[in-house]
Structure prediction request, 409 residues.
Amino acid sequence: MELGVSKVLIIGAGGVGRVVAHKCSRLNDVISDIVLASRTKSRCDEIAAEVKEMTGRTIVTDQVDADDVEATTALLRKHRPQLVINVALPYQDLSIMDACLAAGVHYLDTANYEPPDEAKFEYKWQWAYQDRFREAGLMALLGSGFDPGVTNVFCAYAQKSLFDEIHTIDILDCNAGNHGHPFATNFNPEINIREITQPGRYWERSPDGSGEVAGGEWKTIEPMSMHWDFDFPEVGVHRAYLLYHEELESLCRNIRGVQRIRFWMTFSENYLTHLRVLQNVGMTSIEPVNFEGREIVPIQFLKALLPDPASLAKNYTGKTSIGCLVEGIKDGSKKRVFIYNVCDHEAAYAETRSQAISYTTGVPAVCGAVMMLTQKWKGAGVFNIEQLDPDPFLELLAQQGLPWHVEQR
Prediction:
């Protein structure tokens, strides 16, 4: 299928889907038609009306259960897009990839597949599609959000332009914003809480060069048991906790010679206190329990009680500050830099009616889509974003509202 001025189909009408729709609507020179589909068509209609009012662009809406491969395939055959931008739930990645293969459509997502019944992030399920996408002549781009996504591209840029050798990478994610609620999550509560309550993991090269992945091994720690007070640009010092995050799995393979790679995220004491209480009473469990004669999953019930992340946007203040602290060697000397972006919640809302967490995920998804549609990134098979040329992506990223900076540390 030839790419060029093209039709895209967005699956998912949450906060990120809203940003993607808004941003795609401003790219008339690249994107000719936009279709927005989700399980709840009324949410798509709401976003389409909002985009029409703000940009004058018409978006076609449709309904789909993205868990259903046949239904999703039928949707793709009906609309015949060149590219699917998947911003649905991570549980649905594989069914959407299957539909893309059946309908002959290129694929992009922002987060790796996670099985519904296990809090486990791994690329193995999606990497297993490599041969099928290659043989079909289709491209699947994985993890084109912020982290994963922009942080991976920062690492690729550091490898290409800033270092001769990279020794360590620390990815640091700070949301210094305030949404005004006692407790809320910035994206899907079920995904968010599952992510931060699992054991922490990081990758480190073995002294003898052996190990399960590229001469290294995974080190596992108790959840939230390691922290670091880091001075984030524009927002100051915040306490960041070591988590496992999916981009570590691909970066330890694709960044040559790296010795250690870790991921950190900030949380307030108020957030952690609420989380501990919810864990202690079993509300974060993914195991079904019997309640009045029917099975419910506690974390899904909790999700129904918490504020919809999309509802946080209007009153959100403050900024996010996210980047990669990279250490290594350049021209024989030690070098340490922080490559980062700062995003303002209020500015994100003014442009796309979304908060900065959704904005920083949705904008890179659109940038990745443009790279594919303009053939600046092309190929057949499954790709992690750091495997591709970082320069055109980073140039577009800054143009689309996420300027980035390199700071000597």
